């Protein structure tokens, strides 16, 4: 990333400590912050049962960044337009396994950064890197691929059995 983007992010980061057993995100709650894990580990459990362990240098709440990019309040002519947007609700539970030190950035600050650096962040290479680096989004993608693969093989099996019984 470029220096100006990193500076803008670092200016808005807030340090926070969570204690063992505390829950950072609950399913159905608004995702209001993105967290960067500094020390120890967290456990993230999705609605579909997907379990991801987050350790140092991982991010939590990265779907907020994707949401800010997709629901930007900047119109195509570059002016800010205040449009009603759907709120982002959490689909997972994030629990601290030990005492955890994180840096967090609020939704308003993250949106301000995405508006300021829209051209860079909307680059397909950058968005692909963001999705690849996210442990949660990678596990969701892997689950979806597994489901699609199972459906494919089930259809192939049904097709093969129906052709066998037909003759």
Written account of the structure:
With 167 residues, the protein is of the alpha+beta class. It contains six helices and eight strands, in the order αββββββαββαααα. It has a four-stranded antiparallel beta sheet with strand order 1-8-3-6. A hairpin with a 4-residue loop joins strand 4 and strand 5. Helix 2 packs across helix 3. The radius of gyration is 20 Å and the shape is globular. The mean pLDDT is 80.
Could you list some keywords that capture this structure?
single chain; 167 residues; alpha+beta; 4-stranded antiparallel beta sheet; 6 helices; 44% helix
> Which structural class best describes the helix and strand composition?
alpha+beta
- By oligomeric state, this entry counts as single chain
Helix content: 40-55%
Residue windows where pLDDT falls under 50 for at least 5 positions: none
